[in-house]
Amino acid sequence: MGNAQKKPHSRGDGGPHTDTSNSHHGPWRGKGGTSDKYKVPEESKEKVANGSSKRGSTASAQGDKGTTGGEKAKETVNLDTPCGALPPHLSRLKNEGNLLFKNGQFADALEKYSQAIQGYTDSGMDSPEDLCILYSNRAACYLKDGNSQDCIQDCTRALELHPFSLKPLLRRAMAYETLERYRKAYVDYKTVLQIDISVQAAHDSVNRITRLLIEQDGPEWREKLPDIPLVPLSAQQHRREDPPSQQVLQARAEKASRDAERRAEVRFTALKQEGNDFVKKGQYQEALGKYAECLKLKPKECAIYTNRALCYLKLQRFGEAKQDCDAALELEPDNKKAFFRRALANKGLQDYLACSSDLQEVLQLDPNVQEAEKELEEVTVLLRQSLSSATQDKPRKTVAITEVDGEEVMTEAPNSESSCTGDNISINLKPSSAYEFGQSLNASRCCGNTAACAKLLTSTEPELLPQYLSNQLDGHTISFIVKALDSHLLEKKPDLAYRHLDQLHTADRFRVALMMLEKDERRYVTQLFERLSAVESAEFTKDDVQNLANKYI
């Protein structure tokens, strides 16, 4: 990091920001390299700005020699020592500034650094690290002269050129502290400690400023701090020396993962219990928040989705309740609670068909769920009301039934004056489309002619029945077909009757239409299957009939 990294050349003698790789000219690093190297006593800020510690550095030692014999000191300093990538005349300016700074001539040193900075700019060269050091050194001069504002400005420029350079950060922190801008000073000191945890001056300053911030901002002082930047590992000097082995890193990662899992499990259990407690108290909105936090920790926990769905139902947020139940069923396809609560959500959304389907799933999983039985009875009534309001019976007409090829003509007497009035209508007993089949079926049902319906079914392949009925199927149609099969086909052609029943339940809207059957109509269905099960046939067995009956009864 800037001055903290090794360079191919020395940085000159005795300046406030010399290369730390040069042990003879680095006022920031003591010979021992101990944690005292950045220690800054409160009573003396001179040594902080200059970078020397109580233990002393080679530069400070040279400064002492200079006080006893100025001529001798001058002889030991080579002002033409190369400084990084700077050209000779700029290196000399920098070295002159370092010497003047060491001798306490801060204004003159500042001038030399300013000239070097200007020369760097005029030269058009590209060496951000050298320019960073020049700004950092000039900032040290400003700090010595009590010009904290310009010190901060130069340190900021240096950090823009070389992010996370330690000395500019430390000097800017001191300038902020001088201006009583304690929050920013705290952030810079903490950043310094991320780079090098052994900087004692930063530790002392953090402790001192912490007490000031507590007095100034109270217990919540941390919340008022600016964000502390995260220093990358590459800039953390105290972690560079002995990088951990791959095995150590893997062990640390595994331990961290186990610790995180344990913490997450404890947190999850606590949040779930808090959510359950809120539900018991009827505080469903508060419970939603707890369950949402649970799902952040365990997004595949089915019970949390069903619990949250219950809260949504209580708050009449049916769409969200349905979504949570869908998520739960993706995780556990046989979850009774999810089916039941989704049924309630669909009921709230007035999707009675979907509600009925979910309730039947519940009862199939567990026939003893009385709540599902009650809800199914209620939603069946609602579904009938919904369908009856959407579709009304059309006026009935007198029907004449005729074979299309002219071989047979059959006329049925009307059941009532209201249902068999109007023009005679021919019934096509060999339909070739869903439209023709529907016309013939409606015509025969108009006057209750089950014989004509039976003839229509006889001439129609059972596999075509679901296609022909399409979306026109309703409870009355099912009842009429059942009566026709029972009265006319069962005795003569039981195999054909079975095949029609086996195809009928696959038609669209069959389950909805089946729910519309009245009590007497259901009795006809039961009677048909009882008689069919007594038939001896090579095409089907009693077990086949029983399995098929489960689709109807």
Question: What key phrases describe this protein's structure?
Answer:
single chain, 553 residues, mainly alpha, Serine Threonine Protein Phosphatase 5, Tetratricopeptide repeat, 3 domains, two-stranded antiparallel sheet, 25 helices, 2 strands, 62% helix, 1% strand, disordered N terminus
Brief synopsis:
InterPro entries: CiliaryAsmbly_MitoImport, RPAP3-like_C, TPR-like_helical_dom_sf, TPR_rpt. The chain has 25 helices and two strands.
How far is the N terminus from the C terminus? 82 Å
**Briefly, what CATH class of the largest domain?**
Mainly Alpha
CATH superfamily of the largest domain: Tetratricopeptide repeat domain
Q: How many helix segments?
A: 25
- Kindly estimate the percentage of residues that lie in beta strands according to DSSP: under 5%
Total strand count, please? 2
Rg result:
46 Å
CA-based shape: elongated
> If strands are numbered along the chain, what order do they take across the biggest sheet?
1-2
What's the helical proportion of residues?
A: 55-70%
SSE order: HHHHHHHHHHHHHHHHHEEHHHHHHHH
CATH fold description of the largest domain: Serine Threonine Protein Phosphatase 5, Tetratricopeptide repeat
Structural class, from helix and strand content? mainly alpha
Mean pLDDT: 80
Number of domains: 3
Main beta sheet: 2 strands, antiparallel
CATH A-level architecture of the largest domain? Alpha Horseshoe
TPR repeats: 268-301, 302-335
Biased composition (Polar residues): 50-61
Main location: cytoplasm
Protein name: Sperm associated antigen 1
